[in-house]
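// run 5 | inverse folding | seed 20
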């Protein structure tokens, strides 16, 4: 996959051999149809059904209690959000209404027979621009709007999944719109919110977090959960024996967070807290799913591709912990981007868990509402596959297409398996890196014409169908190369840009940790090589 200035015809021939032997078999996995739910990878290997558990995953509801009134949030001037006769289940460029949320939960419950192992919600319960509801910017009323939206999500989920206990219901995960102002949270401490050796609870350090915890007391399974959330906006829960879900407060690491903080700070002690949790879970021989709202990645929307979502120094510290505890982490799940996406982890081994991002329930950016059903190995606690479901909201210009009584939620891909649809062997780092190779523009890969059609099929399956993000401009050539570079190394702007300008390859080559002596020496020495420098060594294309 690497190219250098002395690339010869012989090396191109070798490249074709590699593509034909290792990559073409993967490409053939893109094809297929049918509607069964077999958990099968691209090789046709079925996972032992008795070992698979399931979970429901929703994100970015952006519930707008004012939908259908003049105070509704409208993301496009001609969207019918403020109309008194607005469509029954919300509409594109509007926030969600309760009918849309309940419809999604009905479908998710039916898909799992009301008995998933647990349910996740990864933030942004509240509509966009809550301050705009009142002309005089009555902050007290705005806070009420946000608090009510945050409370409605877990209550609605509990109503639709009445037979699962509180330990398996979603934990509170705040998105950037769930604070008093967008991305606003004063940082009052750098102390990790840990339980004392004497059993004492961590003290509350933030009024907003305390108010949310108090209003949602029924969402916590213990006093420790509530106290930890009140202190830092993060906490953990064992949702199944040996499997913990860690909720991160990602807003304080966001590039848009305000007030602005010193780079040397550990806001609310979250890095130290996360390290302590992973140490405890590892010592017990157990595993964790890490979840949060804002992912530690670069933006993928075509017009902003490569823009950081999280501050670089926080990304670096996060990646250090992920690499160190990669055998403990079974999944990394985030929302915020309103699109279904994958990212390889730059400093982790081939079999480590990549980052998975989910599209939104809210159609506010013109996307179909979507939710996920995830499947994981109950023994290894590793995520195995994803099934995505979305619904068509019709066309406002053709009233006959608008749903009147119910939404028709359908699987996004045939056979209801992301693995089969994208021709992946599993949901690991290695598989995502291979996917990035296949997503790139075949004219940039020097492949034979016969391979181009298969690579184009992979691109269409991932970007034009599953991605389903903000309606994109046409994406070909350099644009397509950017998107594939984001999949393989979309964490650091400089690494990403190096990948994009590489005229011989549209993706990064990231060596496996176990074989990478350069990384081991650099990270263990006192040579002063920065973390960003280490990442560049790992992701050099």
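// decoded
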């Amino acid at each position: 996959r690497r190219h250098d200035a002395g690339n010869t015809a012989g090396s191109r021939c070798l490249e074709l051999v590699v593509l034909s032997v290792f990559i073409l078999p993967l490409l053939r996995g893109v094809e297929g149809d049918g509607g069964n739910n077999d958990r099968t990878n691209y090789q046709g290997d079925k996972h032992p059904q008795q070992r698979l558990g399931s979970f429901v995953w929703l994100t970015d509801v952006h519930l707008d209690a004012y939908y259908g009134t003049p105070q509704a949030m409208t993301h496009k001037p001609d969207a019918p959000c403020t109309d008194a006769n607005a469509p029954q289940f919300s509409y594109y460029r509007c926030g969600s209404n309760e009918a849309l949320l309940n419809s999604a939960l009905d479908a998710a419950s039916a898909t799992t027979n009301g008995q998933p192992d647990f349910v996740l919600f990864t933030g942004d319960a509240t509509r966009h621009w809550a301050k705009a509801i009142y002309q005089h910017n009555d902050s007290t009323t705005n806070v009420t709007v946000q608090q009510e939206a945050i409370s409605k999500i877990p209550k609605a989920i509990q109503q639709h999944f009445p037979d699962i206990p509180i330990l398996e219901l979603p934990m509170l995960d705040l998105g950037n719109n769930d604070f008093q102002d967008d991305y606003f949270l004063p940082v009052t401490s750098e102390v990790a919110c840990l339980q004392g050796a004497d059993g004492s609870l961590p003290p509350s350090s933030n009024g907003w977090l305390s108010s949310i915890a108090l209003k949602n007391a029924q969402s916590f399974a213990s006093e420790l959960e509530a106290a930890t959330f009140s202190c830092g906006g993060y906490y953990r829960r064992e949702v199944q024996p040996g499997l913990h879900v860690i909720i991160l407060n990602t807003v304080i690491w966001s590039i848009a967070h305000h007030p602005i903080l010193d780079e040397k700070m550990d806001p609310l002690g979250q890095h130290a807290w996360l390290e302590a949790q992973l140490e405890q879970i590892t010592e017990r021989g157990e595993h964790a799913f890490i979840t949060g709202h804002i992912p530690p990645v670069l933006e993928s929307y075509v017009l902003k591709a490569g823009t950081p979502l999280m501050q670089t120094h926080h990304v670096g510290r996060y990646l250090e912990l992920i690499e160190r505890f990669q055998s403990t982490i079974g999944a990394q799940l985030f929302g915020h981007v309103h699109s279904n996406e994958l990212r390889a982890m730059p400093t982790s081994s081939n079999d480590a868990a990549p980052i998975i991002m989910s599209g939104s329930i809210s159609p506010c950016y013109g996307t179909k509402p979507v939710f996920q059903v995830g499947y994981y190995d109950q023994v290894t606690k590793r995520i195995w596959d994803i099934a995505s479901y979305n619904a068509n909201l019709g066309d406002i210009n053709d009233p006959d297409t608008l749903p009147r009584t119910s939404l028709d939620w359908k699987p996004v891909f045939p056979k209801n398996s992301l693995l089969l649809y994208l021709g992946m062997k599993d949901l690991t780092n290695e598989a995502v890196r291979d996917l990035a190779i296949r997503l790139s523009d075949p004219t940039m890969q020097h492949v034979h014409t016969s391979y181009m059609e298969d690579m184009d099929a992979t691109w269409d399956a991932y970007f034009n169908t599953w991605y389903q993000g903000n309606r994109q401009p046409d994406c070909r050539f350099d644009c397509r190369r950017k998107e594939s570079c984001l999949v393989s190394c979309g964490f650091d702007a400089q690494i990403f840009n190096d990948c994009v300008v590489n005229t011989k390859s549209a993706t990064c080559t990231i060596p496996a940790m176990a074989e990478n002596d350069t990384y081991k020496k650099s990270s263990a020495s006192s040579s002063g090589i920065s973390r960003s420098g280490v990442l560049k060594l790992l992701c050099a294309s």
